[in-house]
Amino acid sequence: MVKIIILKKELGKIGNIINVSKGYARNYLIPYSKALYFNKYNINKINKKKILFLKIKKKNKNKLNFIYKKIILLSPMKLYYRCSKKGKLFDSLKIFDICKIFLKKLKFKISKKNIFLPNGSIKYIGKHIIYINLFKKKKIKFIINIISIK
To answer: In angstroms, what CA-CA distances link 48 with 30, 34, 60, 95, 110?
Structure first.
């Protein structure tokens, strides 16, 4: 048996130290970069990577918080579209269009996967609610008010 440090999730939590057979480590885990041998040099290497990863994660979280605050300040957003006399838009407002609007207003691209239209694409004037997922467990309720151009 030999001690190794896990580098891939498929074996367990990254950075954990486990015992495996010598052949499994030597012939599979080490050559395919799924693990490292347990020694002082590799432990220091892993600790440096963890510190760098935590710094990047913190920086990304701060950036998302900044964008979250900007999105909150934009709600409710007024959009002007051409429509029929009955209030139906000539061209419906889809997720792709909303992404373009946020890119213009925020100077930041929000992925189509992060925007949810509960009633499908928007086809009529009036107030509409959309949801934006920037964080895993936090949804932003965003109001879009569509106004007719005459």
So the answer is: 20, 18, 19, 40, 31
From the CB of residue 28, how many other CB atoms can be counted at a distance below 10 Å? Answer: 12
Q: What is the rounded end-to-end Cα distance, in angstroms, of the chain?
A: 78
| Contact status, residue 35 vs residue 43, Cβ threshold 8 Å | no
Query: Whole-angstrom Cα distance, residue 58 to residue 40?
Result: 27
Instruction: For residue 132, give the DSSP letter.
Output: E
| Tokens, residue 96 | 């792709």
* Contact by Cβ (8 Å): 7, 35: yes
Q: How is residue 141 written in tokens?
A: 């309720």
Tokens of 143: 């109001």
This prediction's pTM: 0.61
Helices (H), 32-145: 40-74, 95-106
**Cα separations in angstroms, 42 against 27, 32, 99, 100:** 19, 16, 44, 46
pLDDT (tens digit per residue) in 73-118: 887 888 888 888 888 888 888 888 888 888 888 887 888 888 888 8
How far is residue 53's CA from residue 30's CA, in Å, rounded to a whole number? 22
Cβ atoms of 64 and 35 within 8 Å: the answer is: no
